[in-house]
Amino acid sequence: xxxxxxINRKSPLESFVIALLYVFFALFTLMCLFxxxxxxxxxxxxxxxxxxxxxxxxPRNVHFKNYINVMTVPGLPMxxxxxxxxxxxxxxxxxxxxxxxxxxxxxxxLWGRKFWxxxxxxxxxxxxxxxxxxxxxxxxxxxxxxxxxxxxxIVQPFNIILIKTYIENTPIELQEAAExxxxxIMYIFTKIILPISTPILATVAIFAAVGQWNAFMDTLIxxxxxxxxxxxxxxxxxxxEARSLIQMIAASGGSITDGAINSxxxxxxxxxxxxxxxxVVIPILLVYPxxxxxxxxxxxxxxxxx
Length: 306
What we know:
By secondary structure, the protein is mostly helical. It contains 17 helices and no strands. It has helices at residues 2-8, 12-43, 47-52, 65-70, 76-104, 113-122, 130-139, 157-168, 172-180, 185-196, 198-214, 217-222, 231-240, 242-251, 262-265, 269-285, 287-303. The chain is flat, with a radius of gyration of 25 Å.
């Protein structure tokens, strides 16, 4: 018994190294969280103090008028609906499209399987460039078209590789037994493969959702109709035009005042930038806790074969 206790007991050096690692990762976590914390405390603190850079570690003169005023920005509710719609639809179709292709590429009887798989993978390394992409999208009538947010993202080579590798690590006997019973390919895919592929599907869903929510370049290049602007594009636009946005808020009934109140609650460029950044970032942060338990398992199994 004494020998077992001696084996499990850590040496002082090992204990010191473990403690040092805990401290390092704690500091690293704080470094990752601090930018979000900084945005939040500056968005709820006195606007004049935030503009001067006086808010660093804790909020001062807390108020929430910035969020009330930002909600009056013209186009913000519609942009939120556009971003929500493209995120939900785009994520769902990307997961289904990538999972089906990943499954089909594991089927030995698929005609030209190796050729088509290599053809899809090759698209990760070669790109025609921005101008040919724009000309193609315009030819397909995807300018000022909501489908431009959805259709081009359905097939993602990287996601296909992850799902294909994951499926190849699942027991092939499940599929063989279903085939003996006369099950069709679609039945095997929907009733057998999808239920056991939850970790990798959740991982792909995170990638797709974050990509859709954060995208703004497609809006910048393809959309001129304000009704199709995404939330991220408005953030990009208003971060560059924060002073103009202050006037828009005032015209919409927001609080821009003079005198004593101006020193605390009047909108400033900094307050607008901080508040809009928080409004845009918070929703996607809420997605991670939902899928976190699947993420590590899915990305590890989907990335390593054997």
